[in-house]
Amino acid sequence: MSAFPDISKVTYEGPETKNPLAFRHYQADEIVEGKTMKDHLRFSVAYWHTFRGTGADPFGQATMIRPWDDGSDSLENAKNRVRVAFEFFEKLGVPHFAFHDRDVAPEGKNLAETNRNLDEVVRVIQEESDRTGIRLLWGTACLFANPRYVHGAATSPNSDAFAYAAAQVKKCLEITLALGGQGYTFWGGREGYQNLWNTDMKRELDHLAQFLHMAVDYAKEIGFAGQFYIEPKPKEPTKHQYDSDAAACINFLRQYDLIDHLKLNLETNHATLAGHTMQHEMEVAGSAGVLGSIDANTGDMLLGWDTDQFPTDIYLTTICMYTILKYGGFKTGGVNFDAKVRRESFEPVDLFYAHIGGMDAFARGLKVAAAMRADGVIDGFVRDRYASWDTGLGAEIEAGTHDFKSLERYMLDRGDAAGNTSGRQEWLENVINTYV
Fold first, then answer.
1. CA distance 26 to 95
2. Is there a catalytic annotation at residue 29?
3. Tens digit of each residue's pLDDT (9 = 90 or more) over 116-152
4. Which residues, other chains included, contact 406 with Cβ-Cβ below 8 Å and sequence gap of 6+?
5. SS3 for 58?
6. Whole-prediction pTM value?
7. What is the tens place of the pLDDT at every residue in 46-61?
8. What's the N-to-C CA distance of the chain in angstroms?
């Protein structure tokens, strides 16, 4: 029986359509820069928000109307939820989804029972995935919700919590492999500290690195060739998280000899909480060769927490796609809608409206970014701005043929530096407006 009986498969109807259940800009087989939109964007639905979100917040109870969900933690309810999810994926037309292990199956009274529960539900996911061709983008383990992780998982002062987390990730890697997942993400929800007086930071970071090396080793052992990701997030729930932003993650990966094994899964709302823009985070990751995937959402600038709203700002999606194209596009990652409908948007149809809007926004962002790249105005301006480094003194410095003494002699002969040219920020912003 259909969970969405009044909703047909969402199709492309073009910019002029007034149908709220149709795409205006996302046309899966449209070619942009030599690839289809589907292959460029690699859209994914986040199971945790879309099928486990309730609308509850610290000030109020659940609001979401979900006729297919009886509200229980039973295996039958979990399996039915999977079938509903795949109906949604099919009708929306997305090629991928992502989940935490605890999103899809309930915990049992011990680890063995929990694993059996997961296996039962994964069998249904496999059936639905085989039936539809919709595949897992990446899996991840929920190492933050259960009270055993109150002090963290890989960074916990309790070695038993570390061991349980290791067993949980082991199982999640196995099911990710079985489902053909193309990646695995580590989100350090509580890997950080609230108070340094009770924290051995070096020991915790050493343990986190050891944990990740174990995961890399086990992936090789079982033949999982998917990409590992770390997802930077600065705060909420801990005061300071060790994966606080892209630069902190990259430094950690280099320090602990993990840079060849993990890339970053970046999120706009996390960038905002870190005091950065998504463009900044993506450039930091891209320039280091570790830009892997993105969680597509945005925050409310008037609120100081992770609101995970659907992205509708074309400037934001243009920035994302311009940078992704600049660094060669997605390999195993994609655009994962780690976003939730508002507490006040509680009807099932709102799930469609939200995802359609986000997919259209990214499709427009892709087309705008491709047009900007084709014209080359932005790239040309940046190239000209750094022209002094292409020949003469600049080229010699970059080649390593100068030191402080030789540069002093150069400036003594010259007398003063050549004049600067304008940064043209306002003109550049005007140029970008002509595309958007």
1. 13
2. no
3. 999 999 999 999 999 999 999 999 999 999 999 999 9
4. none
5. coil
6. 0.96
7. 999 999 999 998 899 9
8. 43
Nearest to 293 by CA among 35, 42, 37: 42
* Helices of type H across 230-348: 246-255, 268-273, 278-287, 314-326
Token reading at 378: 């932005």
Contact 117, 106 (CB under 8 A): yes
Strand 240-241 versus strand 31-32 pairing type = unpaired
Looking at residues 289-312, what average pLDDT do you find? Answer: 93
The token pair at 266 is 């970046």
Pinpoint the alpha helices (H) of 42-148.
Answer: 47-52, 75-92, 101-104, 111-132
Q: Which position has the token pair 């994302």?
A: 320
Close Cβ partners of 57 (under 8 Å, ≥ 6 residues apart): 343
- Asked whether the predicted pLDDT for residue 232 surpasses 90, the reply is yes
Residue 220's Cβ-count burial label (10 Å; 0-12, 13-18, 19+) is: exposed
Asked if pLDDT for residue 1 goes beyond 90, the answer is no
Q: Quick one: pLDDT at residue 98? A: 98
Catalytic, out of 25, 40, 49, 100: 100
Distance CA 408, CA 133 (A): 65
Query: In angstroms, what is the C-alpha Rg of the chain?
Result: 24
The structure tokens listed for 257 are: 């000899």
pLDDT digits over 304-325, tens only? 788 999 999 999 999 999 999 9
User: Residue 270 gets which letter from DSSP?
Assistant: H
Nearest CA-CA partner of 350 in 64, 8, 29: 64
CA distance 24 to 12: 6
Please tell me the predicted confidence (pLDDT) of residue 225.
97
CB within 8 Å of 364: residues ≥ 6 apart = 25, 314, 317, 318
Please identify which residue in the block is written with the tokens 């969405």. Answer: 4
Q: How far apart are CA 18 and CA 13, in angstroms?
A: 9
Q: Catalytic one among 103, 245, 306, 308? A: 103
Q: Rounded to an integer, what distance in angstroms lies between the CA atom of residue 231 and that of residue 241?
A: 11
Mark residue 245 as left, alpha or beta (left: phi above 0; alpha: psi -120 to 50; beta: remaining): beta
Q: Is 103 a catalytic residue?
A: yes
